[in-house]
Amino acid sequence: DGGITQSPKYLFRKEGQNVTLSCEQNLNHDAMYWYRQDPGQGLRLIYYSQIVNDFQKGDIAEGYSVSREKKESFPLTVTSAQKNPTAFYLCASSIAPGTGSYNEQFFGPGTRLTVL
Amino acid sequence: KNQVEQSPQSLIILEGKNCTLQCNYTVSPFSNLRWYKQDTGRGPVSLTIMTFSENTKSNGRYTATLDADTKQSSLHITASQLSDSASYICVVRGGDIPTFGRGTSLIVHP
User: Fold this and answer.
1) Which tens digit of pLDDT belongs to each residue from A29-88?
2) Shortest Cα distance from A81 to chain B (angstroms)?
3) What are the distances in angstroms from CA B72 to CA A27, A37, A113?
4) Which of A102, A110, B7, B31 lies deepest, with the highest CB count within 10 Å?
């Protein structure tokens, strides 16, 4: 059953704690992305990775960190430096840009993070 | 700066009625434009995609249009159903990273 999964679906964190959101895909996609979604706002790019062991900052990378040690996995850590982390986080994957098929991004089900 | 503007921000219609959502963009260069549907608390799912040479694309009751000259797109929903209640997001890809609109929130009432 191919797809992209995120866990957990809901996550609660105390202020000052780091927390890691999981994202796994078995679509054999090279590129993976993390977005943040707030009410009334569009998706904002946090980090993206086009190849294993390489990643780039998006528009709102401050207070977040990522790793890409495996093609299938792209975990996101929300650090205590992120001032307003409560949001809905979406992970996506696609084939490598420039390789055709219109580069559709396939999204996971999302993780809702709430800071208490 | 690449931008995608969607209107209206929200829309309420009665079941069975038609509606049209708008998307204007200033993304350059242009590769393709995609409409996504996002149910509450879920990830977006692609409805249609159009390239520069395409000006209309249908997917069931959803029909998207593209005017590459004026940089406008629309998504028309025919005979709306309760399950159409969702956010509809216009996404334009130029380079490696797509640009997202803020979405139109559609509520279909019985």
Assistant:
1) 999 999 999 988 889 999 999 999 999 999 999 999 999 999 999 999 999 888 899 999
2) 26
3) 32, 24, 35
4) A110
Q: Look at strands B10-14 and B104-109 and give their pairing.
A: parallel
Structure tokens belonging to residue B98:
């797509």
Q: What is the pLDDT of residues B19-77, one digit of tens each?
A: 999 999 998 888 899 999 999 999 999 999 998 888 999 999 999 999 999 999 999 99
Which residues have C-beta within 8 Å of that of residue B62, sequence separation ≥ 6? B35, B47, B48, B75, B76, B77, B78
Token code pair at residue B7: 């209107």
Cα B101 to Cα A23: distance, rounded to the nearest angstrom:
24
Whether A60 has its CB under 8 Å from any CB of chain B: the answer is no
- Mark yes or no for CB contact A112/B41 under 8 Å: yes
Beta strand pairing call for A111-115 and A10-13: parallel
The answer to whether residues A19 and A7 touch, using CB atoms and an 8 Å cutoff, is no
Residue A12 structure tokens:
């609660």
The pLDDT of A91-95, averaged and rounded, is 93
Q: Give the C-alpha separation, A36 to B53, whole Å.
A: 32
Question: Is B76 in contact with B62 (CB distance < 8 Å)?
Answer: yes
What are φ and ψ of residue B49, in 5° steps? -140, 140
Structure tokens at A84: 């307003």
- Other CB atoms within 10 Å distance of the CB of residue B101: 25
Residue A15 near residue A115 (C-beta atoms within 8 A): yes
Residue type, A26: N
